[in-house]
UniProtKB/TrEMBL annotation, chain A:
Protein name in the entry: 3-methylmercaptopropionyl-CoA dehydrogenase
Taxonomic source organism: Pseudogulbenkiania subflava DSM 22618
Record function comment: Involved in the assimilation of dimethylsulphoniopropionate (DMSP), an important compound in the fixation of carbon in marine phytoplankton, by mediating the conversion of 3-(methylthio)propanoyl-CoA (MMPA-CoA) to 3-(methylthio)acryloyl-CoA (MTA-CoA).
Residues covered by the Acyl-CoA dehydrogenase/oxidase C-terminal domain: 283-447
EC number: 1.3.99.41
A molecular function GO annotation: flavin adenine dinucleotide binding
The keyword Cell division belongs to this UniProt entry's keyword annotation: no
Domain called Acyl-CoA oxidase/dehydrogenase middle: residue spans: 162-264
InterPro entries in the record: Acyl-CoA_dh-like_C_dom, Acyl-CoA_Oxase/DH_mid-dom, Acyl-CoA_Oxase/DH_mid-dom_sf, AcylCo_DH-like_C, AcylCo_DH/oxidase_C, AcylCoA_DH/ox_N, AcylCoA_DH/ox_N_sf, AcylCoA_DH/oxidase_NM_dom_sf
Residue span, Acetyl-CoA dehydrogenase-like C-terminal domain: 464-590
A Pfam family the protein falls into: Acyl-CoA_dh_C
UniProtKB/TrEMBL annotation, chain B:
GO biological process: carboxylic acid catabolic process
Protein's name in the database: Electron transfer flavoprotein subunit beta
Matches recorded under CDD domains: ETF_beta (cd01714)
Subunit and partners: Heterodimer of an alpha and a beta subunit.
PANTHER family, A to Z: ELECTRON TRANSFER FLAVOPROTEIN BETA-SUBUNIT, ELECTRON TRANSFER FLAVOPROTEIN SUBUNIT BETA
Pfam families with a match to the protein in the record: ETF
Length: 594, 249
């Protein structure tokens, strides 16, 4: 069984050197969020993640959540750990102080989220969905709804769910059919929701469902969907728990991974109709969902970072212990970490994990700047960065995690394929993350359509300029490594720019030609952004070394950046080639020829 | 009843300790540092006493560089009320530490000092005993259970042959053993609150205590690497080896 040791060192490095922790700490209301607090918070969260949550990972996978006599039974230890989690107040890290949270910036909250996800992805989904429900009510709920639910959701005493998906409505939510019939000051909901994460359990005394449904007179399509809050137990006038609402868990799914997380089919209105309350205005439900999307998608992107980190730690530890064969240049048989190819696999895992982490945290810091920068023009600029990078963090980090967790199995050899080892679990668990919260295809459409073509690449081209400035700065540092890094990065940036201009052009000819390259384009942008961050990281590490710091950590950062530049960045050329030349063949085949 | 808890910043228990390349000292540059685990147990015990209504204010004290503020903040986040850092860049011997703590006791007037039984770096297991000696207070070392009354305490001690239960009058010095309690996980709200709790920094010189070293380190060496094991054919061979080679039976 593998241990998880939170990579606090790398996290703090990224926060301080790449994501601008000091700048975020200078924003109004976040003066306390400095390096000292960040370190204290990360140390303690890391300890909790490693000691309390990480041991649940294997148990959760083996036992899974099960439906027994109509009740959801969660794996051994999950409920106790959840109560400890609530007790320790981690759920409210970035929630408003008015409702009992700590109001810390995303740049502090997201690394902590990464730890829960590394420790046990299935467990971490419960607080994540609660966060989603909480934000829906925070931004769009009435003061009464906020008073009724928010404090309990912030503390985690109650959990929350997001009910969007129906059998015929997944990627395309305009097809939602659940109905809401007005009745006095509330509504009665009818319909079936599927794949609802942590949709039913007895770990907490109540569950707050956020549900998409249609009003009787609603227009068809996206503009006719409303958002409702539907508690599992209705609340009495004094806030105490009242009657059981008419929402039932019909079944739990049998899944490829994240077995610990109960994925529920929920039936609303089997008898009189589930009582729900409208959140915000009628017919604006999908719009509200979109306002919260950035947070949720960034969080799932972090799952890519988190599970890659866990897989890497396990593979590295195994590679140090497993003795097999005499490596070139060695006298006798030794640990497999000596073999060049094992080093290549480990560095492919490590370098991409660090690159992903950097891009995810930088995006989190942009969110903080977009929320609180005193200058409205700057806020808008950061917001457009967030909009642009969110689908990249979600799509690229989760896709890359497939490669990283698969390599984690490969490093273990035959033992990797054996379930007891635990390496396979990371690969199976990782498989969902490119699917939920919008598939990679949907992320790529968003990146290309809304975030690039709609504004003729304005935000992206400005980002490219910033990448060039940063690259030139690092390239000018003393040392061959920095020249090499900058040269590789420059080539990749040029490919990105070329592909971007090509897509803007192609879309005017036939949008299908552009969208055929949407996912390769997303991977291109992710790969180049990763290189940009690793280049910056190498520059920052060099500055520390120049300032007299001796830690091997900084030397390793530069070497890891070089590996990324030589092994991963060249993929940018392939992606760019596909974007520019691969559309016609994608579209050529007649549907009957498949 | 006020309690003073000394806490030391040491290399984290999970770090594999190495010597510097030139063998001059332990390489603590960039190693992860944490609160000495026995001191963590001491802080936890003090907080439990406070929560049970048996103790009042808890003052955490550390001696060392500014970096020690992080372990003091950690103690504050666990639940200590105030912290004091006696600032020095020097590495002090247990007697110097005990003398400084005697001065702290003189200023703070606690009824109880709870120390870790030893620190995981020096492993001397002396400071608590020396402090009790200097103060002329009773000492109860290696505590695995502590019942506090108003005038005295009953302490269960872990000794080689088993457990020993003793009564001490207050004021007293108690040193903690591993099984006294398991320290709690610090809550996020308490980490935030700790930032606002008072942490005083006083230069070592202000105490007018002679802390000059009395020991000279002649050399440092890493423990010999464990040599490979051997496989024995049967129980008879095992017994023979234990008897003749290891000489343990
Ligand atoms: C374990 C698990 C947990 C989940 N948790 C929740 C939850 O808590 N709440 C909730 O509401 N939902 C949840 N979901 C549902 C999840 O969000 C959807 O499964 C997902 O959005 C995809 O929808 P779908 O399954 O209908 O696939 P489809 O939409 O049918 O997609 C099938 C394929 O077609 C592609 N595709 C579809 N449309 C397009 C397009 N326009 N352009 C290009 N490609 C396209 C997709 O990329 C995909 O490859 C969960 C699902 C799972 C498996």
């Amino acid at each position: 069984m593998s241990q998880y040791v939170a990579p606090v060192r790398d996290m703090l490095f990224v926060m301080q050197e790449l994501a601008g922790l000091a700048d975020v700490g200078a924003l109004p209301g976040w003066e306390e969020a400095g390096a000292e607090l960040a370190e204290a918070v990360l140390e303690e969260a890391g300890r909790f993640a490693g000691e309390v949550i990480a041991p649940l990972n294997v148990v959760g996978d083996r036992e899974g959540s099960r439906l027994v006599d109509g009740k959801v039974v969660v794996p051994a230890g999950f409920a106790e750990a959840y109560h400890q989690f609530v007790e320790a107040g981690w759920g409210g890290i970035s929630s408003p102080e008015a409702f009992g949270g700590q109001g810390l910036p995303q740049l502090l909250a997201k690394p902590v989220t990464e730890m829960w996800k590394s420790a046990c992805l299935a467990f971490s989904l419960c607080p994540m969905l609660t966060q989603g429900a909480l934000e829906a009510l925070l931004h769009h709920g009435t003061p009464e709804q906020q008073n009724a639910y928010l404090a309990k959701l912030v503390s985690g005493e109650w959990t929350g769910t997001m009910n969007l998906t129906e059998p015929q409505a997944g990627s395309d939510l305009s097809a939602v059919r659940s109905r809401a019939m007005p009745e006095g000051d509330h509504y009665r909901l009818f319909g079936n929701k599927i794949f609802i994460t942590w949709g039913e359990h007895d770990v907490t005394e109540n569950i707050v469902h956020l549900v998409l449904a249609r009003l009787p007179d609603a227009p068809a399509g996206v503009k006719g969907i409303s958002l409702f809050v539907v508690p599992k137990y209705l609340l009495n006038a004094d806030g105490s728990l009242g009657e059981r609402n008419d929402v039932q868990c019909v079944s739990l799914e049998h899944k490829m991974g994240i077995h610990g997380s109960p994925t529920a089919v929920l039936a609303y209105g089997e008898s009189a109709g589930a009582i729900g309350y409208l959140v915000g205005e009628p017919n604006r439900g999908l719009e509200y969902m979109f306002t919260m999307m950035n947070h949720a998608r960034l969080a799932v992107g972090l799952e890519g970072v988190a599970i890659s980190e866990r897989a890497y730690q396990q593979a590295r530890d195994y590679a140090r212990e497993r003795v097999q064969g005499r490596a070139l240049g060695h006298e006798s048989a030794g640990a497999i970490i000596r073999h060049p190819d094992v080093r290549r696999m480990l560095l492919t895992m490590k370098s991409q994990t660090e690159a992903m982490r950097a891009l995810a945290y930088v995006t989190a810091a942009y969110m903080d700047q977009a929320a609180r920068h005193p200058d409205p023009a700057e806020r808008a600029r950061y917001q457009s960065r967030v909009e642009l990078l969110t689908p990249v963090v979600k799509g690229w980090c989760t896709e890359t995690a497939q490669e990283v967790t698969s390599l984690g199995v490969q490093v273990h050899g035959g033992m990797g394929f054996i379930e007891e080892t635990g390496a396979a679990q990371h690969m199976r668990d990782a498989r969902i993350i490119t699917i939920y919260e919008g598939t990679t295809g949907i992320q790529a459409n968003d990146l290309l359509g809304r975030k690039t073509l709609r504004e003729q690449g304005k935000t992206l081209l400005a980002l490219i300029e910033e990448m060039r400035t940063d690259t030139a700065r690092v390239g000018a540092l003393d040392g061959e490594a920095f020249r090499q890094l900058a040269a590789a990065q420059d080539v990749a940036i040029k490919e990105l720019e070329g592909a971007t201009r090509h897509l803007i052009e192609a879309a005017t000819v036939d949008p299908r030609l552009a969208f055929a390259g949407a996912v390769p384009y997303l991977m291109l942008l992710g790969t180049v952004c990763g290189g940009w961050q690793m280049t910056r990281a190498a520059g920052a590490a060099q500055a520390r070394i120049a300032a007299g710091e001796t830690a091997a950590f900084y030397r390793a950062k530069i070497d890891t950046a070089l590996f990324y530049a030589e092994h991963i960045l060249p993929r940018a050329m392939t992606h760019a080639y596909v974007v520019q030349h691969g559309a016609r063949s994608t579209l050529a085949l007649d549907e009957s020829a498949f | 009843m006020k309690i003073v808890v000394p806490v030391k910043r040491v290399i984290d228990a999970n770090v594999k300790v190495r010597l510097k390349a030139d063998g001059s000292a332990v390489d603590s540059d960039n190693a992860k540092m944490s609160m000495n685990p026995f001191d963590e147990i001491a802080v936890e015990e003090a907080i439990r006493l406070k929560e049970a209504g048996a103790a009042g204010e808890i003052v955490a004290v550390s001696i060392g560089s500014d970096a020690c503020q992080d372990v003091l903040r950690a103690a504050l986040a666990m639940g200590a009320d105030r912290a004091l850092l006696i600032r020095t860049e020097a590495v002090l011997e247990p007697l110097a530490v005990a003398k400084l703590l005697r001065e702290v006791v003189a200023r703070e007037q606690p009824r109880l000092v709870i120390c870790g039984k030893q620190s995981t770096d020096g492993d001397a297991n002396q400071a608590g005993q020396m402090l009790a000696g200097l103060l002329g207070w009773p000492q109860a070392t290696f505590a695995s259970k502590l019942d506090l009354g108003t005038d005295g305490a009953t302490v269960t001690r872990e000794i080689d042959g088993g457990l020993e239960i003793i009564a001490v009058t207050l004021p007293a010095v108690v040193t903690t053993d591993l099984r006294l309690n398991s320290p709690r996980y610090t809550t996020l709200p308490n980490i935030m609150k700790a930032k606002k709790k008072p942490l005083d920094v006083v230069a070592l010189d202000e105490f007018g205590v002679d802390t000059r070293p009395r020991l000279t380190t002649l050399g440092l060496a890493e423990p010999a690497a464990r040599s490979a094991g051997v496989r024995v054919a049967d129980v008879a061979e095992l017994l023979a080896k234990l008897k003749n080679e290891a000489k343990v039976i």
